[in-house]
Write the structure tokens for this entry.
Amino acid sequence: MRQSSIKTTAEAVLRELPSVVGACVSEDLEGRPTEIHVLVRPGPDPASLARDLRDLLQDRLGVPVDQRIISIAQLAPTADEQAEGAVAQATIPPVESGGVHASFQPGTPDEPAMTGDTSFHGRVVFSSIEATVTGGRVEVGIQLDWRDSQVRGSSDAVNTKNGRARAAAVATLSAAREAVAGNGLEIELDFASVVQALDGDYTLISVLAISPRTGRRPLPLVGAHPVETDIETASAIATLKAINRILSPALKSG
């Protein structure tokens, strides 16, 4: 197998599994997987699934795969089990490092509040987002409403699907940091990617958070959202889904 085909082959192998609806694999210059992002159906245990995915890829690709690079976003069942649209649960498999095992599996995350919604007191409200492409790069600016004021963030990246997702996620986190400034919450983007699933694209966002409430170990937070209009908006909403549960207590204590 040629090294240049590992990304395509790995994604095809992952999509063979009945539980997997979308996958995105990044590789280094030598063809080794560096990031593996998977969108799965409701049901499978993320920790067990991550181990199965690692073993499957190692067997089929013939290259070592570090389980720590595998992230999983899981679709939650809706009232109508046939409707597989909205992402309502995101999970990340246990991280194995130096014999220490850590895992994060939230319940159904709160949906981000949108402009004009007055029912979310004490929370940031998604207001607007703009994207400008110049010279092969995209610059994204976002505004979040917070109480009676606005917080803004911006970022730029190479104008690719994943680049647009990263720029929007970083801009969203920058605005969120402004809202919780001085509250001891640190939030940084871990990864952002766009995967094809269920006849459409989804943005998958992972954020590392540290706060006095969670201890010194970074807490991985994952969010996902379908690309309904544009990648930037989907990425911003997925980022807010990832951080809402930890952001809301920080906002209330401010």
Summary: The helical segments are 6-15, 46-61, 161-179, 231-252. The longest strand covers residues 186-197. Residues 231-252 form the longest helix (22 residues). The chain has four helices and twelve strands.
